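On clarity, I found the account of how folds are encoded harder to follow than it need be. What matters is that the chain and its backbone geometry are given together, residue for residue. For the editor and my fellow referees, an illustration may be useful. For illustration, here is how one protein appears when written out as sequence plus structure tokens:

___
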Amino acid sequence: MYQNTLICPLPCVAGRIASFIFYYLQENLMSNRREFIVQLSLGTGVLVAGQAMAQGAALAETDPQAVALGYKADTTKVDDKKFPKHAAAQQCSNCALFQGKAGDKAGGCPLFAGKQVAANGWCSAWAKKA
């Protein structure tokens, strides 16, 4: 039921709130249509907000995991002396680990759980997308 609790617990929280609202509606049997619609819209708003927050914040270059992998939000700012295998054409958007869609400015990466990496970023774990 709660498969993604380790990665991002926010969808679970939204689900619990929605379950509570549904239970509340069943137990108290709304007295009129207007009250029902207000309760329904509040529940929908909570679910939408939970999904928006579940996308995660942008990864900071100062994050310990980012520092360990040499992550830079802009691939042109990578120190080529420190990372000799880096090439200018290598970006998160063309990495096999990038979970964003084509054209997205940011997307998820399994190496940085719950954080969004910049599409034109780079880290030392870059692997060519097949």
